[in-house]
Amino acid sequence: MSKHIVLDLETLGTNPGCVVFAIGAVAFDTEVDTPGNFSNQFHSAVSIMDAIEQGFTISSSTLNFWRNKYSVEYELACKLSVGISPEKACNSFNNWYQNFSLHGKEKVYVWGNGKEFDNAILKNYFEQCGVDLPWTFREDMDFRTVKLLFPQCKPNEDNKDPHNSLADAKYEGEWLQNILRHIEK
């Protein structure tokens, strides 16, 4: 049995310590779930203002990216600044993870899009919020590398809602499911 979580963050920076304003994730078991079906999902809007007050930073280039390319998502993120605090988001994610891993009894691989992006940024969030990270370095996986190696496994339909953390996690999760099934053949 192999359990996986695909994580996607929407941020106002590209380095650990930046503001995260949305966390999206999907979880699946390779022996049970079919590609594209994710009954186990996580999504949380995080308060930008609370994150800034806790010392998380904003990159001007990333802020400009959001303003220029994804103005609707940026405006929505600003409205979602009433989201939960970074600490509550980390605790909520941790509870969701613990339920999926049967409270640590089953190993769960956590995939982020780039070895220094999603997982590294969320790890820093957990550390700065004083919340224990639910996975170890042994379960820390890089989706960007495997999708480069298996472009033929890309889902048939493009992601129709890019830069929505849950939509991105679902799209990347389906791609990863396809890759894992391809490798098992």
Question: Your description of this structure?
Answer:
This protein is of the alpha/beta class. The protein has one domain: Nucleotidyltransferase, domain 5 (2-Layer Sandwich). It is built from 7 helices and 5 strands. Helix 2 crosses helix 3. It is globular, with a radius of gyration of 16 Å. The mean pLDDT is 91.
Summarize the structure.
With 185 residues, this protein is α/β, with parallel strands linked by helices. It has one domain: Nucleotidyltransferase, domain 5 (2-Layer Sandwich), CATH 3.30.420. 43% of the residues lie in helices and 18% in strands.
Annotated CATH architecture: 2-Layer Sandwich
Largest sheet: 5 strands, mixed
Q: CATH topology, what is it called?
A: Nucleotidyltransferase, domain 5
Silhouette: globular
Helix content: 40-55%
Quote the distance from N terminus to C terminus. 16 Å
Q: Using only CA atoms, what is the Rg?
A: 16 Å
Task: Provide the CATH top-level class.
Answer: Alpha Beta
The total of helices stands at 7
- Unreliable stretches covering 5 or more consecutive residues: none
CATH level-4 homologous superfamily: Ribonuclease H-like superfamily/Ribonuclease H
Strand content: 15-25%
